[in-house]
Amino acid sequence: MLQQSNAADQQQQNSAAEQRSRATQHSDAEQCSRSRSRRRSNSPSTSLAPALAAAQQRRATQQNSAAEQQSSAAEQQRSRTAQQSNAAEQQMSSR
Description:
By secondary structure, this protein is mainly α. Helix content is about 95%, strand content about 0%. The chain has helices at about 1-40, 50-95.
């Protein structure tokens, strides 16, 4: 009889411990989920505006870079033309 009573007590304790464990796990999962959704709602990536602004910034940077390259190419062309002109003048003057 005493063994049955001890066994019943043990079972109740196990059951209570299991319920506490489940409640803790549930609470942890819930907190984690809440924390995740809070991070998502605070995160600027959920809004398209920052992504759009970043894309526009990249495009503007690329356009500026292309314009600089064109300007540099034009400058090099002018420099070559000037060198050719100087070479032609030297040839004329050496004759």
